[in-house]
Amino acid sequence: MAGGPHDKETVKYVGDSRVRATRERLLPKPYSEYPGKTEPFFPNFLLKEWMAAVVFLIGFMVLVVSHPAPLESHAADPNDTSYIPLPDWYFLFLYQLLKKIPGDMIVLGTVVIPGFFSLLFLLAPWLDRSPERRPWKRPIATTIMLFVIASIVYLTYEAVAQHKMQLEESASAAEQAPAPPPAPAPTESAAFDPEQAYMQSCSACHGQDLKGTPAAPSLIGLSLSTDEVVDIMTNGIGVMPAGRFQGTDEQKKQLAEWVLSHQ
Amino acid sequence: MSDHTLDHGGAKWRENAGRQENVNEITRRQFLTYTLMGTGGFMVSTLLVPSVRYAVDPLLKKGEEEPYVPVADVSEIGSEPKRFEFTLKVDDAWVKNQQTTYSAWVYKQGSDFVALSPVCKHLGCTVSWNTSPQHPEMFYCPCHGGLYTKDGINVPGTPPRAPLDMYDYKVENGKLYLGPLIQRT
Amino acid sequence: MRKMYDWLDERLDLSPIWRDIADHEVPEHVNPAHHFSAFVYCFGGLTFFTVVIQILSGMFLVMYYTPDIVNAFNSVKYLQTEVAFGYIVRGMHHWGASVVIVMLFLHTLRVFFTGSYKKPREMNWVVGVLLFATILGLGFTGYLLPWDNKAYFATKVGLEIAETVPLVGPYIKTFLAGGDIVGASTLTRFFAIHVFFLPGILLALLAAHFILIRRQGISGPL
Hints:
The complex is a heterotrimer. Chain A has helices at 41-66, 92-99, 106-122, 124-127, 139-176, 194-201, 203-206, 226-235, 249-260, and one strand at residues 39-40. By secondary structure, chain A is mostly helical.
């Protein structure tokens, strides 16, 4: 009943489905159908896009292979008072913005300013409604965007610079604190006493009992290999300066083993 | 006349469109498609080769050589199978030195010792000695009724298809040390 | 092959779907082969490509990772140092997270400065902004997962920031942290959000993004 005579049209379907049984063959359209220099997505344009993707991928994999993802040497330690936290780089501008805002107006930095710009961003199509698309013909939108980009770049840069300064300060503070005399390189390795070396070179920051001080973390129960400890001794890590302990490689190894024996 | 021929040719061209249509165009399209497949294959393999190697790493890791561990005093072992437990420190991925308990059915046969793994060769349940009233003096697996004789040989007609594994052993200072498992057929 | 395809095609009518994707025309002004400056139109595609890398490497990472405060760090360290190519898989995910933000940023700037968000493409801009937020959320939740000091303290700061939101702030913080402190429940929560909730949202938004582009076509030349 429904549809009446239309039901009796000659369209045939596959079984009781809505897929038509007779269909025209779909062949790729000849290129002449495309006006101007347009081209079909597959395979012509996709190939060009993939070429770009290959170049990108090679660069990306070179980065990945040459720079292993950083991982700190031990798990999170909530009691580590000397750690200077830093968010991932793309949140730095927000983090820096907060530093500029007095404590009692923090809402300004956490909600009002970011929220305002996010809203501008989200509603851009309704704020900038002229049909004009060229950026130099819509100065307001372009200026605001350039201002935002410049602020983000500046704040990020400032955050990185300040963080670097903080690290240096705390490193030199740790160095000056009780002014440990630089360990004289022991002349005879046979007479090398790791405990004595520790007391001379390390205890000022890491504490006489290895339990750490506000300047440096505890060395008890490290999950590091001897070589990793030697590397940290030689090259420093975080705020720890390089070369606090001057000794031969063998002595460094002994000292590292001694430190690691405190589990 | 010439009009007619042209028309005819045109119709024929359309008829064959699927197969022959403009030979150059097809090969160009195919060429592009093959290049595309090559490029795609390169990208996919660049991403998947390290990832798959990473995923199958456990298959390719060499098992560590199992050490010999003291299990019992020789004097404790008689000719009747007795269950002894022993612990091994095992590295389980990032959980290092995990204490894991194993056990063995041990008895004396002449001057030799026999130490059998209690793991049923059917589906890995634990067998025990002489616990089934119907089958005395046998290793019995409670899961599917597998039976093994005293020397660990599976009784034909029961589910297991191989004898129980045997521990390699050595005796030092009056103690029995068990080592790696030996599979038998 | 041919026969299998025909069998499926008869039932499912597949041809029009992929024909539509394959044969749609791509205008000259976005084709870097014609104008080199058109490479700015690649950033969207590269963002998507990096997202694919992230999904792939993420799936592989979860094979070894444990979201638990005792084991999280050790499992990451294990897969990074002891599993073959673990450092590459983790490296892809770690660097990919930064690259995806860079690409996304460049893509957004391209769309903004070519005014491509204007009528009739307003809705796709909104979807794009939501995608941006989702990806930032993925970055924030993923940062905690290795459970080292950097992860822990950055998250702590992030949650303190959430707390300053008027009225609902403390609730948001407790909800995200799963308790009063950043700890075991925070880690499992962030893991669930990072691995299930946000990727689900991401895929749905991506589908909408692509369907809209396909429907409206790419914006014309300036």
